[in-house]
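pinging the channel bc i need a second pair of eyes. not urgent but kinda urgent?? the chain im working w is below, pasted from the shared doc
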Amino acid sequence: MSAALTPIESPALPAVEVKAAREYQAESIAPATLRAYRSALKDFAAWCSERETAPIPATAETVAAYLAALADRGLSVSTVTQRAGAIRWAHESADLGSPTASKTVRATLAGIRRRVGVAPKRQKAAATTDRLRAMLSHATGDDVKTLRDRALLLVGFAMAARRSELVALDVADLEERDGGLLVRIRRSKTDQEGAGQEVAILPGAERGTCPIRALCAWMDAAGIESGRVFRSVDRHGRIGEGLSGRAVAGIVKGYATKAGLDGDFSGHSLRSGFVTSAAERGQRAEAIAEHTRHASTDMVRTYTRRADLFRSHPGEGLL
């Protein structure tokens, strides 16, 4: 017969151990998502304050009314859904039951989706091969900043890189191979636990559009032998710290503007440009997704479908 367990009052754990656990908990969510959640919760708290109701723990009726107000304000379904996710995260982080799991909130979100619709976000302009060449025609100088920009544009396209992957690229992640350059991506959007992924960069068919030559020229000129690959350069040509994702977007936008290209370009344009160009050349969606590190071929197929819209068109020759 087993002895009965007698409840005892547990002493508080050492503060350093509690702090360590909290640090690991903070790592469970991507920094960009955390920033978005904090911004959303600030808005929710302000809304609740105006109505003298508690933001946490919040009632299901409060959350439903807030989400409805967002929809009436004209916010997209994706933004409303993200705000609901932030509220859920805040409650779960405080070991509280989340009101977003209630039938009231779920029905409100379903109604918003039906009324507002879930049309996909407007896609950023893709820096396809021809557009990339136009951008590169304005990056022909030998100064260190131009060399960096040229390398960033070509490597970003060749890797089909996300902004976060480009700015996190380290010299230790590069490995020369007979067929080109092997790049290790330590962490990405689809690899939050940091298992690591590898992508191959092939030499360019032309000297002026070879990502490997451009990368070597930048690193040699900047004297980069370790640490971050892409770094800031001031107006005097002095090399600084690693670039930010916003800086990458600014570089892409800047060269698109110089080239006179129409459309809304961003840091994502290099990645979407690779996918679109590969799809237009008839590459299989599975092969593209493997290179781009997409978790599935669903997103890749949106690009291949666009490429096919004008190929073998059933209306060709009818008018």
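so The chain has two domains: 15-116, 129-308. and The two ends are 90 Å apart (CA to CA). — does that match what u expected or am i reading it wrong
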